[in-house]
Amino acid sequence: MKAHKPLFSQIPKSPTIDKVGVEERVSRFQTRSIKGTAKMQGLSMVLSMIDLTTLEGKDTPNKVRQMCYKAQHLHDFQDGLPTVAAVCVYPTMVSIAKDALKDSSIKIASVSTAFPSGQSTFDVKKSDTQFALDAGADEIDMVISRGKFLSGEYNFVFDEIAAIKEICGQKRLKVILETGELANLDQVRRASDIAIHAGADFIKTSTGKIQPAATMQVTYTMLMAIKDHYDRTGIMVGMKPAGGISTSKLALHNLVMVKEILGEAWLTNEWFRFGASSLANDVLMQYMKQVTGKYQSADYFTID
Amino acid sequence: MNILKTYKIYIAGQFPRTESGRTYVVNDAAGNPIANVCQSSKKDIRNAVQAARKAFGPWSERSAFNRGQILYRIAEMLGGRKAQFIEELIQQGQTIERAQIEIETSIDRIVYYAGWCDKFQQILSSVNPVNSSHFNFSVAEATGVVGVLADEQTGLLGLVSQLMPVIAGGNTVVFIAAEKSPLCAITFAEVLATSDLPAGVVNIVTGFANEMLPTLAEHMDVNALYLSNASNEIVKSTQLSAVDNLKRVVVVNEDWNQEKAQGIAFISSFQEIKTTWHPIEQIGGATSSY
Could you tell me the end-to-end alpha-carbon distance of chain B, in angstroms, rounded to an integer? Predict the structure, then answer.
């Protein structure tokens, strides 16, 4: 796509964000009623966009294997369901996931750069990333150095992202801004612009460890950064809200927002993902409600 | 000025209006309008079941003694609002004498089931003789979320008689109030809301049973259904709808005014018996080695 090395000086000045305006606009996305076949298609699309995630200190190889099985068999009682887009794990679990998913097209995303805090040395972050790639990760989810960002050292943040992207090469890089630590929407926009210009293939809201995570307001602000970049350069960047999206309704509202801001081109799992651990079951239950006409029970869906 | 009260429904400890925004008018025995009542929808049932499911774990795990205290508190709070219930019962066509008896009997019945809370387990549980090296015992566990369709024939007493044994046993409830006489049900919700009963343990919706009952009966997250003095037609259609997740459908035909219309049987209808085989060293007789 681009051969030249990105330069910090090329980042345009980020616009200030009108918080009241954002809330107004976002509230309108939430009033849409999506029913019938449109709902079925939407739910199916949500499933296909999920990065099924386990990022806990207590993760074990078997927990990861179990999740990989679920990624391929969301609900075998129903024909025609998609698989999720990817699984998202810690670097040490990548080889386990790789083995468990060897017969499928599901991608393996690995968090890196001393996830979730990012408080480590540059060398450690680089070798963390390299380790995940060597183990077979298809995608890297890195965190930015929020402390540096908040101290105004944008250059440092930019260089770090650019360096990790260089290690990733053709593998896609998602840059986690951890918006819950960025204090306001102006900073979210600034961080988005920095990440996009430093070579992010995706920008991602959160680690899932900090609340609030992927609020509609934050996702909206990031989508606008992607849109402005696309309008200026013609280069597409993906979006991944993560953390806090646990209901189908909220997921569908996110899709409505993506369609209206970025257009249909982004409505595929190549350009839009949900980072979630418990969203899949809620979507499946809603889907089966549409199929059977009966409200469902978590008792009849696999544990996630 | 006499204001026609709009009665709201009771879900998750709150008093929302129905999601559908609809109401219907309830008349007194003479045909004069006495109140506006929510005509709840399928989505209200969904919300109520969700609330009941959320409340089930903590409620069933509460100590039996504490559940008894809370039921007793309900009786106390009901006692404080006798006058209001008597007025509503009269509005719905009762004589003053009957209304007084009904409220007194209702309070007695709640106290009765409050007493059972920490006693039924001992009676329903057992140590079982088995012909192997096991200590074998059975205990009662709450069934889960129970959908209750109100008895159309009584205002308060039927409601209390159906509800109390179900929650005494640790279940949570979605209650569809009587279509023509729902006032007591909602006023009773106001009693529940002020008596330490955790949010979501009892959820009460008003409206048309033929609209809501099928949704409740088919709902996969409801574990049992409880009908009282219902028509054969309703019983049959409910049983058919309940098949998919093998709900327990309990049907009774009781005159709730009778002394015998109470007892441990009403509690055990909504209990599951769990039997445990615990390996021990020697093949023993009836006594355990513990």
Answer: 71
